[in-house]
Amino acid sequence: MGFLEQFVHNGRALLGHRSKAILLSGAACFGAVLLVQRVNSRREQKKRILEAQRRREKSFQVAERALLEYKQSHPMTNALYILSLSLSELTKQLQESALSPEEVFYTYLEKTLDVHQKLNCCTEIILDSFEQLKTIGSCKRGILYGVPLSLKENLLLKNHDSSCGVVKYLNQPADDDCVLVKVLKEQGAIPFVRTNFPQALLNYDCSNPIYGQTLNPHNLQKTAGGSSGGEAALIGAGGSVIGIGTDIGGSARIPASFCAICGFKPTAGRLSSKGCKSIFRGQKTVLSTPGPMARDVDSLALFMKAEICEQMVFLDPTTPLLPFDEGLYQSRNSLRIGYFDCIEQTPTSPSMTRGVQEVKALLEQAGHTLVPFTPVRILDMAELMSKGALADGGATFLQQLEGSPVDPVLHAQVAMYRLPICLRKVLAFILKPFVSFPSDCVNDTIAQWRRLNLDVVLCPIIGPAFNFCYCGKLMSMVPHSMTYNLLNFCAGVVPVSTVTEEDERNLFVLIGLLQAITGGVGLPVAVQCVALPWHDELCLRFMKEVEELVKKARKDEGANANGKVYLIYDFH
Ligand SMILES: CCCCCCCC/C=C\CCCCCCCC(=O)NCC(=O)O
């Protein structure tokens, strides 16, 4: 090798080694920076989560002290009586000054503190409520004067975070109350507690990395349901007389079914959604709406009456000037009712089917006409439902969770949204032959409704309460509720029965459901009542009738003691 060649060769080797070394050390530095960033961000997340948990604890401690102070001078002898009153009875007693707002407030506060200890259903006690209580006398003419009210955490409240379980939303207090809360305060209600939900809200379990898992009041081994599970658990256990949830796929109805309370999803737009936070913006195909949750249907109706007023329309002119029709709610003419007790390609538990069949029989005995109704094929709507809820295939959902630990209830969903596009395309190709898009599922459903001359529809709602972490694995059940968000019909659920040994035995054929709901004997069973868009009062009136008939049947059966129990949860 000549001198020149030797020189070039040595130079290359040296450069090669050096560039490799440079590359390696560059990569090591980059890796170290990423690692440090990751460790720092984990530390920061943990810090934020701990701060939020401390804030929650502090709010409980302050509330406990205030309660203790109150009790020292006020013996609270009326507590059991107050807790037994329905919302209409309670408002009457408050308006007639037979009860004072203070004794009602502290009674519910005490019960809430107790229930939360057992079920982990609250995210904070709203300390501003103590101030509001002092001046509540000025709202004496309000429909809900002196009524303590619970709120799901995603309803904006001035100076409070609405985290939706996402760490990056912590420490971002709202500038103002949401419209519904503003109106309720004017009507004399006192929002005093905020309640738990699943991380990112798009799930029907109830757990998040900040506030943990909410338990079912009827069985601590089961979830309270979601996403408005904190509300359902608290109300179901008697810690609140009325609360607000939100619903884009069943979030007010599913937890109501799991916890034996009533939940109502009004037609989207009937109540203001201004200030109801979600992790997505601008969803238009599947519509989200806030809705009331309570122990009985009259309470839901009273809530709607209180919200639907000029002030709501003034604060949110996107809501219609459509006063609550009390006459329609109170009417008792016989109805033509469509019904179905299962839907194709959608798992339905034995108790869901039995619930519908038993209520159908009661309605027929009461003189109503029941007509079989076949909903538009769920598979034809499934694509619209998933695209409407997750138009970007879950990208925003995953993006919002960046920087947050992912809660176990979301693992199945997150794994699905992380599937590579090519794999999803293969799946879509395989499923294509089963899906034929209807030209217009809303008008197709309305056309069938009109052909049968129906007033309302009776159908199943997901239940009974699931074992933890199964809700995210059984999104195939969501059409039972989400169909009415897609159609934008109003829908509500009423508890009607409890799971029997026979329901449990019949479970064995449902492989997918078996593990999710096994061990449910004695748990609540509910049915769903549906009406056309803007027929909210008719839907509530139908729910009321179902509630009355079931109560009467339970009483009669108690008298006949034939062993069959329609409802064991006594609300009054
Ligand atoms: C035959 C299978 C069809 C499956 C189609 C299901 C489409 C699922 C798409 C998204 C998942 C949405 C889950 C919704 C659960 C309810 C949660 C909810 O209503 N949250 C809203 C809120 O809290 O405001």
Automatic annotation (TrEMBL):
- Please report the organism this UniProt entry assigns to the protein: Neogobius melanostomus
- State whether keyword rRNA processing applies: no
Q: What is this protein called?
A: Fatty-acid amide hydrolase 1
Amidase domain sequence ranges: 104-540
One example of a Gene Ontology biological process annotation: fatty acid catabolic process
Q: Which residues form the active site?
A: K152, S227, S251
Write one Gene Ontology MF term.
amidase activity
- Cross-referenced Pfam families: Amidase
